[in-house]
Amino acid sequence: MQPLTSNSQHRPENKKAVSMGDEDIHVLVVSFGSKEYYQSVAVRYEVLRKPLQLSFDPEQLAQEGSDLHVVAFDGDKAIGTLILSPHGDMVKMRQVAVLDAYQNRGVGAQMVEVAETVSRDLEMKSMVLHARKTAVPFYLKLNYQMEGDEFLEVGIPHFRMFKDL
């Protein structure tokens, strides 16, 4: 994992320290297929898939090779994750998950901040996402805007949200 420089032309790897009491919380952009990537898949499964009795299949995961994977760690334990999928000058943020024990402690906001910084460094103009209805207040606090009507995704109410970068 390498620090991100503002002039990076390679896939960014960003380390950002997050001060949270005595904990060693930090956020990184990790490489697809790495040990840290698979730790992030476990977080996504625990938070997003398991409650819906869904799993990942290898074909789904194989399609994530061109995505950027932002992961929060407490020491060497993955505690949160999100995926960035660039499309032209827009990036879609998806699969945002923080372990229950770390929710409401700033971890998600710090991951989003790193995701926005990385996206700006890659000259992205906007960030879009499909927010679960229960997560809309979180994104509104981070200055995301709602767009369109409620819709169902994996059987759960969602809203499309965006933010100009």
- Determine the number of helices (DSSP H or I, runs of at least 4 residues): 4
- As laid out across the biggest beta sheet, the strand order is 1-2-3-4-5-6-8-7
Shape: globular
- The portion of residues forming beta strands comes to 35-45%
Q: If you average the pLDDT, what whole number results?
A: 87
Rg from Cα? 15 Å
Let me know the CATH homologous superfamily: Gcn5-related N-acetyltransferase (GNAT)
Distance between the termini: 25 Å
Largest pleated sheet: 8 strands, mixed
CATH T-level fold name: Aminopeptidase
Helix coverage percent: 10-25%
DSSP E strands, number: 8
The domain count comes to 1
> CATH top level?
Alpha Beta
As residue ranges, the low-confidence spans are 1-11, 14-22
Coarse structural class = alpha+beta
Q: What is the H-and-E element order?
A: EEHHEEEHEHEE
Note the topology:
Elements (H helix, E strand, L loop, with lengths): L14 E6 L2 E8 L4 H15 L8 H5 L5 E7 L2 E11 L2 E9 L8 H15 L4 E7 L3 H6 L3 E9 L2 E9 L1
Parallel strand pairs: 5-6
Antiparallel strand pairs: 1-2, 2-3, 3-4, 4-5, 6-8, 7-8
Give a summary of the structure in a few sentences.
This protein has helices at 35-49, 58-62, 107-121, 136-141; strands spanning 15-20, 23-30, 68-74, 77-87, 90-98, 126-132, 145-153, 156-164.
Describe the structure.
This protein has a single domain (15-164), classed as Aminopeptidase (3-Layer(aba) Sandwich). With 165 residues, the chain is α+β, with helices and mostly antiparallel strands. The model is unreliable at 1-11 and 14-22 (pLDDT under 50). The chain has helices spanning 35-49, 58-62, 107-121, 136-141, and strands spanning 15-20, 23-30, 68-74, 77-87, 90-98, 126-132, 145-153, 156-164. Strand 4 and strand 5 (90-98) form a beta hairpin. The protein contains four helices and eight strands, in the order E-E-H-H-E-E-E-H-E-H-E-E. The protein has an eight-stranded mixed beta sheet, with helices on both faces.
